[in-house]
Amino acid sequence: MVLLVIIFILSYFAFILGYVIYYYYKSYKDFKISKEIFERKFGSLEPSGDKSTWNKVTFTKITLKDVINCFSLSRDHKYNYLGVSWNIFYEGTDLYDYVEEFIEFVDSKAKPWWCPRFVLNLLHLFGDDNSIVRCRNQHLSSVKRRLTKGISINDIKTKFGTLRIYGLFTQEIDDKLNEVEKKVNPHLKEY
Questions:
Q1: Are residues 120 and 187 in the same domain?
Q2: Structural domain that includes position 2
Q3: Is residue 74 part of a domain?
Q4: Residues 78, 98: Cα–Cα separation, whole Å
Q5: Residues 37 and 67 placed together within one structural domain of the fold
Q6: Does any domain span residue 50?
Q7: Residue 165 near residue 152 (C-beta atoms within 8 A)
C-alpha cells in the first residue's frame, strides 16, 4: 500500500514536470519559428556595431531565501505568482477582508486544481524574476502564463476615493471585482 502511494506521488510530480517541459519546448519552438520568419522578412535581429556598446540587461541574483519563499505558506509570499498581491488595507478591517477575499477568488480561478502553488511561484521567480514587468526567461514565463490562463493582478490602489484593481481578468473575475468595489467604495471616504 505504501509503495502504491509513493508511486502515485512520483507520477503526480512527473506529470507536472512533463507539462512544464512540454510547454517550455513548445514556447521555444514557436519563438524559433517566428524569429526565422522575421529574419527572412526583415533581416537579422542582432544589433549592429561593436559588441561592447550593446546594453546588457542585468538581473538581481536569485538567493536561496527567494527559492524558500516560493514554498512558504505565509500571506506575504503565497500569491506571488499573481503579480501584485499585497493588501493595501490594515489587517482586521472589513476592507482588508473584502480585498483578501477577491485575491483568493482570483487565485482559485488562475491556479489549476492539479498544480501546486509552489510550482507557479517557482515559475514566477525564474521566469518573471518576481516582477510584473521583467522577464528573466521568456519560455518559463510563457509556461506560467499558460498555466494561469494569463490571469494576473497588475495594481491595487485607492484613487479619488475609489478602489482600483487593475489586471488581466476573465469576465467572471471582473464581475466579482465590481461586487468588491461596490462593497469597499462607500467605506473609503471614512478610511
A1: yes
A2: 1-43
A3: yes
A4: 18
A5: no
A6: no
A7: no
Write out pLDDT tens, residues 11-57.
888 888 887 777 777 776 666 666 666 666 655 556 555 555 555 66
Residue with cell 498555466: 147
DSSP H helices in the chain: 2-42, 64-70, 75-78, 94-110, 117-128, 138-147, 171-188
> Is 79 inside a domain boundary?
yes
Q: Are residues 191 and 134 part of one domain?
A: yes
**75: number of Cβ within 10 Å:** 13
Nearest to 127 by CA among 187, 70, 45, 54: 70
pLDDT tens column, 92-120: 888 889 999 999 999 999 999 988 999 99
Number of domains within the chain? 2
Whether residues 165 and 121 fall in one domain:
yes
Asked whether the CA dihedral 117, 74, 165, 137 is positive or negative, the reply is negative
Distance, in Å, from the CA atom of 86 to the CA atom of 165, rounded to the nearest integer, reads 11
Q: For position 102, what pLDDT does the model report?
A: 93
- In a domain? residue 144: yes
Longest dimension (CA), the chain: 65
